Amino acid sequence: MDAELVNAVVKVGDGRGFIIEASNQRLVITAAHCLPHFPPCHGASYLEERTYRDLLGPLDESAPKVWAECLFADPVADIAVLGSPDDEALYDEAIAFEALTEEAAIDALAWLLTLDGRWTRCAIQRRNGWPLWIENAEEAIRGGMSGSPILNDDTSAIGVVCVGRGIGLDSDTIREGGPNPRLTHNLPGWVLL
User: Fold this and answer.
1) Answer CATH for 3-106 from 2.30.230, 2.40.10, 2.30.29, 2.30.30
2) What dihedral do alpha carbons 147, 151, 155, 157 form, nearest 10°?
3) Where are the alpha helices (DSSP H) in 104-146?
4) N or C terminus: fewer CB in 10 A for the chain?
């Protein structure tokens, strides 16, 4: 895979997220457990309760320095959507968010991204529509890959890496590569437009 595709994946705390474009804005999709805390679960929350300081950054060795606002979080499905901080109250922080997300190659995502920045091939198995199980991956899912995209060959994002090992459908076996949330089944409709 092309090295510039790595720009579509960003650091989210100790994990990762990937940039999409929806409703004419750039958003970061990540595993909800990558957030330092969950925002309050009511519509009357304060901006300060939904905004994270120094959460995002490039995949290099530098510490995350870009702020983000949580637009959606589902702790059960382990998925979250982050957007630009309020550009009136946090103008400089919003500019930093836009600068980080503008570097992404949104149109050309594919496969899984390893911890050392290589795109690797894997097979995806969908069971009953969701969740996604990653099989026959060239490299095992490891800690730090949470929030990375799971993507089709046609370059569209279909899921987010959250779990490297989980209980199989028969509840008696441990399976590698899942369950991982499927975007179309776990994100709100306005993100998928």
Assistant:
1) 2.40.10
2) -60
3) none
4) C
Residues of the chain with CATH 2.40.10: 3-106
What length is written for the chain?
Answer: 193
The answer to whether the predicted template modeling score (pTM) of the entire model surpasses 0.85 is no
The residue type found at 176 is: E
Cα gap 141→19, rounded to integer Å: 20
CB 50 within 8 A of CB 38: no
Contact 44, 50 (CB under 8 A): no
Contact 30, 161 (CB under 8 A): no
- Please give the pLDDT value at position 130: 52
Residue 188: is the preceding peptide bond cis (ω within 30°)?
no
Least confident of 6-10, 36-40, 64-68, 165-169: 165-169
What tokens were used for 100? 């980080």
Radius of gyration of the chain (CA): 16
